[in-house]
Amino acid sequence: MDLYDAINRRRDTRAEFTGEPVLEETLARVLSAAHAAPSVGLSQPWDFVLVRDLETRRRFRDHVLQEREVFAGTLPPERAGTFSRIKVEGICEASLGVVVGYDPGRGGQHVLGRHAIADAGLYSVCCAIQNLWLSATAEGLGVGWVSLYREDFLRELVGLPAHVRPVAWLCLGTVADLPDIPDLERHGWRHRSPLETVVHEGRYRGAGPQATSS
Ligand SMILES: Cc1cc2nc3c(=O)[nH]c(=O)nc-3n(C[C@H](O)[C@H](O)[C@H](O)COP(=O)(O)O)c2cc1C
C-alpha cells in the first residue's frame, strides 16, 4: 500500500474488529512506526502500554460507557437520538488496547523547541499516534481512538505515574474490513468539510461555514 492509499484507507474502527490476535512481528512494526515519529527536541515523549487482559479492558469499557451517558446528557433530544445509534468504542472486541502516554519529563530540562509552546510535547505524541494509525492501516489492521474517559481513571487503571498524561486509548486489531465512510458521517452526526474551507492564502480569511455548527 502506498502512503496516499494508507491515508485514504485509514478509518476509525469500532464495529469491524474480529478479535484475532495480531502477530507479534506485525505489532512490533506498528509500534516501531509510532516510535519513528517526529518529536520536539527529539524528546520522544511517548509511552505505549499494551493492554491485552480482558478484565482490564472490561473495566475501561464500563467507564467509557458511563462517560458516554455523561456526554449524552448534554445533548438536545434530536442530537441525543443520533448519538444513541453511534458506537463509540471497540475496546473488548479489538485484539488489544494501546494506551498512549505523554511524559513531559522526557528529553531533559531543555527541550529544544518547547520553551515557548509547552503543547509541542503533546503534538509530538499525536504524531506518533498518527504514524501508528497509518502503519496499522498499511498492515491491514484497524485502530479506534477512544477519548471518552477521565484521565485519572485511565492513569490509575494501567499504572501510569502521576507525571505521565494519558493521551489516548487505541483499540488495535484485526478487522473484517475498513468502512469507506466514517461512522459519524454514515449516521449523519457530522460531515467532512471541503478542503477549500480550511485553506487560507496569505492571511486567515474568516471562519468556514461549518466552524460553529454542533
Ligand atoms: C483525538 C481523537 C479522539 C477521538 N475519540 C473518539 C472516541 O472517543 N470515540 C470514537 O468512536 N471515535 C473517536 N475518534 C474518531 C473520530 O470520530 C474519527 O476520526 C472521525 O469521525 C473521522 O472518521 P475517520 O477517522 O474514520 O476518518 C477520535 C479521533 C481523534 C483524532
From TrEMBL:
The residues covered by the Nitroreductase domain are 7-173
> InterPro entries this protein is in?
BluB, Nitroreductase, Nitroreductase-like, Nitroreductase/BluB
Gene3D superfamilies given for it? NADH Oxidase
Q: Keywords, A to Z?
A: Flavoprotein, FMN, Oxidoreductase
Annotated Gene Ontology MF terms? oxidoreductase activity
Looking up SUPFAM superfamilies in the UniProt record yields: FMN-dependent nitroreductase-like
Asked if the keyword Oxidoreductase belongs to this entry, the reply reads yes
Q: What domain of life is recorded for the organism? A: Bacteria
Q: What is one Pfam family matched by this protein?
A: Nitroreductase
Q: Which NCBIfam families match?
A: BluB
Question: What name has this protein been given in UniProt?
Answer: 5,6-dimethylbenzimidazole synthase
